[in-house]
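Handout, page 2. Input:
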Amino acid sequence: MQLRLFFFLILCCFLTKSKAESYTEVVFDNSLVKGSYARSYVDYSGQSWVENVHRNLLVSDSLYFTPGNALSLRYISSEAGDWNVLIRYSRQKFHYRVSAEDVLNLKLFVGSSETSQKQLPSISIQQGPNQSISLPLGDYIEDYTNNAWLNVKIPVKDFAGLNIDKIISGVIFRQQQSSPATHQLFLDQIEFLPANYSTAPLTSAAVLSKVNPHGKHVELQWQVPLTPSIRYVKIYRSLDNKEFTPVAIRPTYMLRYLDYVPTLDKKYYYKIAWVDYNYRESPFSDVKEVEPKALNENQFLDLVQLAHINYFIENYDVNSGMYTPFRLKDKAPVSVKETGGALLSLMVGVEKGFLSKSMFINRTKKIVQFLDKAQNNKGFYPAFFDGRKGLPEYLDGQAKYDVVATTSIIEALLIVRQYLKGDAAEEAELRTAITKLWDRVDWRAAALSTDPLILRSSLDMVEGNLPHAPLTGLGVGLNTYMLATASKKHSLPNQAFSNSLAYSYKRVVPASPLDNAKGIQDSLSKDSLAKTDMDLEIVDKPVLVDTLIKVSGLKDTSMYGLDVPFGPINSSLLEMYRPFTSINPNLAKVGAYDLKDIVGKYALLVKRRDNEIGVGTTNSDIWGFYQHFDAVGNYRINPAISIASIFLDPVKAKRSLNALYTLYGETLFSEYGFRSWMDLKNDDVSDEYLASNQAHVAVMLENARTGLIWKLYQGIPEIQSAEQRIFKK
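Output:
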């Protein structure tokens, strides 16, 4: 197979080099989008001025310290004015906190000959609404000169007013000394580093293991030795094997890079170097030659799956085997819910030859052993754990056990149990261990006390607190009801599945804090209510506690020429797709509901809506509006929404996939697959990935191509029995 990868040595390296290490954090290294940097904000007044496009700094593609760009800061500091520029810390998933011993480093190029050291701006650190004291950059530069890259190193302890317990949201450059001249600076590699780091010289040549062509993307693989002074891998490309140009850098925890090349049927030459903390390079690796060719449809789909699956191959906690959504210095948070999607994606990877079965079994065994010892309540787990300590992490501040997260991991493990049918003792032991986890989940304990056919989304650590939102509607709740119905020891009646579609709940809250209702009222903040996905009704009557009222789940609605039974869509389509990562949609007929047909209508509705509002493009194949939690615009597109719809309409999904890759693949598609969103209106793209997106793309493409996960799920004896009882023949 052309795309077959040899991950064995790579994964062994990961097992040796723990990914639980501390990761230095970068505020800015490169802009993914050319032109202007959307994560910056320019503000000026009076006769001062800062060059900008739509209030964003310009990006320099010709002058930079690390490939492939830097930020251009061109300004006038007038005595009769003022200016400041915020450069946001864009990696929201990481919630980076500095240490008092850290040093803020940046690379500065003074491009204007008349700019003196005192005319450089000052800099402060932003933490939400708070800012530290602002320090003059010029005070922290030795051997100042123009037209050269300078090192700026500022000890974090010098920033008075900084709270090391608060997360970093960005850095602010400010007008310092007034001057009538126009000054030109270039900024690169704005980062926090430890005060002391390894300076061992890099004397050994880098090793470029493999170079594979995949259409316009060329995949490079390497193995980083356990040398503490190596910080980056720097990639060089050449057209003639003589003149090499740096095209990218990658942190050492990433073991490959996808390079986008402009032309097919042409030879390219690659080499890499290790880079230390002072950006000194090791001797180069050997040069490898490649000639990219056009891909046929199957090869292209393999490439897309390969990249999305690689996200889960590389992003995991070595202690627990669980998927890790982000890394912190003092702990390793792991996600129970998203580990379910990771397992299914890795299983697809085994079938396609992207990783070995033995690696998959080892990872699964570690996960099962971790969960067997992990804290739980009647078999239900919290949404997050600390992978190192095995203790719950309540990231939203609520001590609870998550029914949906438990559904995701148990369902995936049952599919793994069905997949590992070999006679080997290791597989047999793993099947037994998975059955143990499955049997101890008491689904009845999660039912509402007022309605034993309806499940809660969570269980409190201590009973008697606010009731959590019931699981109803077309979403992951259907997966939960399928498991609850299929359970041999703690099952719910068959009609629970159809009831979850037929009924919904409203939460009634007192209009004023009365007696013991006051504490309840106070706890129902806007944010917490938003998380429940429940209709809220505030009543002007003396109720003492909030109340759940059962209502019809049907809200027959006509929108964009389509009739849909459950009302307007108020969540991501991925939530509606979720049941069908495992449940074969062709079987999903419950009473009068053909669930595949209904979800298909909602997907078409969303496409028509997105095409109508434009989402920044006139191309009708680009759709999948996504309102991110911190979005201020209305034009973000989540690529997974249209691509994962392939199980509903293969033609439309493939057209969208091709459009996204062809038009935006250079910035939107990487070694981890499609990024979490792009904003065509504001010319911005996320530098992060969402596990739900990567899993939906990898699994849905495989289900549409081979039906792998659907077949395995149907083959589970308990599920097979439940489906026969629930689904209309």
